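Researcher: Structure prediction, please.
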Amino acid sequence: MEYIYARELKKYFSVFGSFYDLKLDSKATIPCRNVLEIYSNTYPALQSYEGKQYYHKPDALFIMMNPGSSKPAQDDCHIDTLSCTDLSEQIFEQCLVPAKPDVTQYQVMRVMMFKQWQHVRVINLSDIREPESSVFVKQIKDLNNPVHSIFSPDRQNELQKALELPKQAPIICAWGTNQGLADLAHLCFKIIPARKIAGIPAGDNFYYHPLPSLISKQKEWLTKIMECLQES
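Model: Predicted structure follows.
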C-alpha cells in the first residue's frame, strides 16, 4: 500500500471540529472537542455546509482516545465555556469550525483515500484536549465524572446523533492500549453495535492506535485495518 504523506493529503481533505471549554465545579476550565468531521474536498454537500453538528451521515465512524492537541485553524476562534451541569443541552448549540489536522488524522485520511470515502466522523472516549497521555489519564481520574465523554449516560441524545450512520458504515475502534481508559472503553462497548465494529484488537476492550511512532508500524496498521474492513 502506498503511504501518502501529509503534504499530499492536505490537498484532498478538509477538517472541521466542535470545540468548547468545560467549566468544572472548581471554576477551572478544560479545553475539549466533542466531534471532528473529515470531508473530501470533492464532497458535494461540503459546498453548502453551514457548520451544523452531525448534519451529514458519514461513510465511517472512528472512535479514538481523546482529541490530543487538536485546535481550531484560526488562533482567534471564539470557544464557548460550557458547564458540567448543562453540557448535554449546551453542546448542541456549538458549530463546527475549520480545524488544524493532526498527525493521527492523516492516518484516517489515508484510510479514506484507500476506501474512497468522502466523509468520516471522529469521536473520542473523552473530549479532553490533552496531548500527553499521562496528564490526560490523571485529568479523567481527578474529574471523577464521565460527562467529558460522549458515552456518558448524560449525553445519550448526542451519542445517538453521532451514531446515525448508513447501514454499511463501519465503526473503527482505535483508542490504543492505555489501561487508564478501561472504564471509558467499557462505557463505549455497552452502547456501540458490535456487528459494526472494526479495529485491530489489543486485549479486552482495547484496539491499537492508528499512529505508532515508527512509519513502518504506521504502514503495518494501515495494512491490518484494511484487512479488518474487508472482513467486516
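Model: The CA atoms of residues 93 and 190 lie 27 Å apart.
Researcher: Thanks, that helps.
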